[in-house]
Write a structure and sequence with these properties.
Blueprint (H helix, E strand, L loop, with lengths): L1 E5 L2 E4 L2 E4 L1 E5 L2 E6 L8 E4 L4 E4 L1 E6 L12 H10 L2 E6 L10 H14 L3 E4 L15 H4 L16 H14 L3 E3 L12 E2 L2 H5 L4 E2 L2 H17 L3 E3 L5 H12 L4 E5 L1 H5 L20 H12 L5 E2 L14 H4 L10 H10 L6 H16 L13 E11 L18 E11 L2 E5 L4
Parallel strand pairs: 1-6, 2-7, 8-9, 9-10, 11-14, 12-13, 14-15, 15-16
Antiparallel strand pairs: 1-4, 2-3, 4-5, 7-17, 17-18, 18-19
Helix pairs in contact: 4-6, 6-7, 7-9
């Protein structure tokens, strides 16, 4: 199928220009003004912007094992609606992808049901229990990297062994950093809100302590290392200093950590995630980390649950929120429009840096896969979870008015999302 996308601004070569995009058989075959192709379907996007498809290196699509929360099909379609064409799925599944056999169950579903590019993580330890190493060698060719996300690897020796084996395989360790001994039953940030409302808090050290430990191990082993969902200012400082020393480390944070803090909390499960929303000073440190390059990637940590699981307030609800359908709009509205970051910087955080670090995703460039998304940046809408494709409806941004609506997403030259109102 041939498509000619016209009359939009297009993000190419690190900037925006007015150019047409011709797609044929899944590939960008021409860029230029006033392109002509009689056989192509014309897609007129006057007033819109065409971005390279976004890359999310941290999502939970819940299948196999928990399809009542999400499936590969609903998750990938939700991602397409949010402008994403490539995602990496975390291993807290049933069965956990800790062996070739268990991984195959997930791969079979991906091949059958995914509408975008879905890259699974293999677990670091068997069952994510932290006691026995997974079959890293057997899974290496079929996974994007190794992670025990959802749980931190508690043993220093286990993590060191995983790093050495991952390095030998040319794979990255992607770490959920959490010291279980410091959690003490906490479920929101150990800050002013927790004290005022008699909640049990999670201290920041439970995150930055393991990061500091792992940085030391990376310096010992030379492993490539990426930190998941950074939320604390001390974590940012440790990563910044490690980068200055030349450590092979990158990190991500989530949209919610950049625009919310614990002063925004309500007694509602849609404000509960792990790590939790922290102090205003932590949020500011994350923004500074984005501006100076310490934070490489924004990943949604899209973590859908059932309505019942999210209906039990801050204490009783499951950890995790839905985010992949709203991430761009939230970030554009809260960070780009007020001038905190540039639109170009946002593209780097949602595509360029993840593409370079993880080796997935595409540029809008002749010869590249036609993975792209079209947004109307002037379109204002109200976030309504009932309209989500995702099975998960719990978002702290319910009812927010935002700018930037996805009009179309194309993956491998195939339209995988198109706004019905367009």
């Amino acid at each position: 199928m041939k498509y000619l996308l016209t009359n939009a601004k297009v993000y190419t070569d690190g900037g925006f220009s007015e150019t047409d995009v011709l797609v044929d058989r899944g590939v960008v075959v021409a860029l230029g003004e006033n392109l002509q192709c009689d056989e192509a379907t014309i897609l007129n996007f006057s007033g819109c912007v065409i971005f390279p498809g976004f890359v999310d290196v941290h999502v939970h699509f819940r299948e196999p094992g928990f399809s009542y929360k999400e499936t590969i099909e609903t998750g990938s379609k939700a991602a397409a609606r949010g402008g994403y064409t490539a995602v990496c799925t975390m291993p807290n599944l049933k069965p956990v992808p800790d062996s070739v056999q268990h991984l195959k169950e997930q791969l079979d579903i991906i091949h059958k049901d995914a509408v975008i590019k879905v890259y699974p993580y293999g677990s670091i330890t068997v069952g994510q229990m932290g006691e026995e190493m997974s079959d890293l060698e057997g899974m290496a060719k079929d996974v994007i990297a190794f992670s025990d996300d959802g749980r931190g690897v508690q043993s220093r020796e286990m993590m060191k062994d995983a790093m050495l084996r991952s390095k030998a395989l040319g794979k990255m360790i992607v770490a959920h950093c959490e010291d279980n001994s410091l959690l003490r039953g906490g479920y929101i940030h150990d800050g002013e809100y927790a004290k005022a409302h008699n909640h049990k808090g999670i201290c920041s050290e439970s995150e930055y302590g393991p990061i500091i430990r792992d940085i030391e191990l990376v310096e010992e082993t030379g492993c490539s290392y990426h930190v998941c969902h950074v939320s604390a200012k001390e974590s940012i400082d440790a990563i910044r200093q490690a980068k200055k020393r030349g450590v092979d480390i990158t990190c991500e944070t989530g949209p919610h950590y950049l625009v919310l803090d614990d002063s925004c909390l309500q007694e509602d499960g849609r404000f509960k995630m792990n790590p939790p929303l922290r102090d205003k000073s932590d949020r500011q440190a994350l923004i500074e980390g984005i501006l100076d390059g310490t934070v490489d990637v924004i990943a949604t940590d899209h973590a859908p649950h059932s309505a019942e699981e999210k209906s039990k307030g801050l204490e009783g609800s499951a950890m995790g929120i839905t985010g992949i359908e709203t991430a761009f709009s939230i970030l554009y509205t809260k960070l780009v429009k007020p001038g905190v970051i540039t639109l170009q910087k946002l593209v780097e955080l949602l595509n360029t840096n993840a593409r370079k670090r993880f080796g997935i995703g595409s540029e809008i460039k002749v010869g590249e896969s036609a993975d792209l998304t079209v947004f109307d940046l002037d379109c204002e809408y109200t976030i309504n979870p009932e309209e989500f494709i995702s099975k998960g409806k719990a978002t702290p941004f319910k009812g927010e008015k935002v700018f930037g609506k996805c009009r179309l997403t194309m993956c491998n030259g195939k339209i995988v999302w198109q706004d019905d109102n367009e």
